[in-house]
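seq:
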Amino acid sequence: MTTVQARADYPLVAHLLRRAGFGGTSEELHDLASVDYEVAVDRLLDAVDTTSLPDDLIRRYHIDQSDLRTLPSAGSYWIGRMVTTDAPFVEKVALFWHRVFATAQTKLIQGKVMSTQIEMFREYGLGSFRDMLVQLSKNPAMILFLDNQDNHRDAINENYGREILELFSMGVGNYTEEDVKECARAFTGWTVANTDYMALKMRNNTMRPYGYIAWQFKYDESDHDDGEKTFLGKTGNFTGEDVIDIICEQPDTAAFVARHMYHYFVADELPVPQWPHFPPKDPEAIRVMTDAYFESGYSIKAMLRALFLSESFKAEASRYARVKSPVELVVGTLRLAGGYERPGADVYRATAASGFMGQALLAPPSVEGWMGGSDWISTGTMVQRVNFASGVVGDLERPGIRELVNEIKAQAGQDATPEALVDSCLKLLGRLDVSDETRSGLVAFAGHGESSESASPDDSDKDHQIVSILQLIVATREYQLV
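struct:
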């Protein structure tokens, strides 16, 4: 018998918004906490973007975001989309697949092909995993990144055949070297149109007077090996889509994809290369998702819905169990700050800041993607993280910060105690939970500012006192976690 979900509480909704989005404003928190938790989950999963700036408006201000040729242009275009969308889950999922199916513009040179891949993640990222793998295998960025244009019927190139098994679907230990070769044979003839092979070799790509031509998938039947193949125990004249069908039938595939989801949406796992040697942190969470995978016909959305409704996700122990990636930190902070009704140079600074913190969008360090977890934190990157976040929340010219400060003053009251000020700041920064030690330090700081002899009771000083508290909060351990 189905039980009615309890109405969501604020801490749980805040947790959901941090994981399925980039954090939430007080308005978003109030809206989702007013309905049953299951309804809140479905609202996030089913949201459709209606607020991102239209491309023609962006191009009036930033012509470089028309052809998206460079990393700053393509990365900033995506940052702008993440900051302005009212469907953050769609962008969060695209960012997830970008980490799993890591493709780097640094090898491909032009950015348009990378932005096209991200758009593919938006379109297929919550659908069938089978369809996602088909689209990935036909994606020009992936084909060229893993050299499948050099995979010919008489001379196979194993790069893509290996990585679709090792990193994208099954994981090491669940296939043989012969499976890799047979997989590569199945993908012969899957190549790219609108390219000049010698120009690619000379790193000129397909430059024309009006910029780079958008590459397209091409199936070259004359270059496809249509001979009999034996793959994962099955034999036939398999094509690329046939081997994807076989891959998706495997329980190992469901478990591997589920572990990626747990790693990204619940808690930092070990780096992917260690997975064959160590069990998952939470086998029950993996089981919940693998059951949903098969019951739904490989639906990615069904897997994530099952995860967000699971006790593993809702448990207090899962909160603040991941280090925010640089993009999560940058985008979440900018969404609080607001002021993106028109295109501006801020997105370029944000893209650069994320790179300084160790996550250059569209340029993962290898096909394994970013390791994440504690790898995000070092002496240098921590300084970058704190400086960026404190710089944003310390700017009273930003409309979201101005509104945030006014709301804190209204909630805390005219004669607010240091405790009330700190609690209001934590509440309006997304219902942030901090340790008793952190809270005591924040209260002591707020009290010191209040008792300073140079302080005066006018509104301007109160604003700056609140801003200083906000800047200290974003430097805390808790704000750096998600």
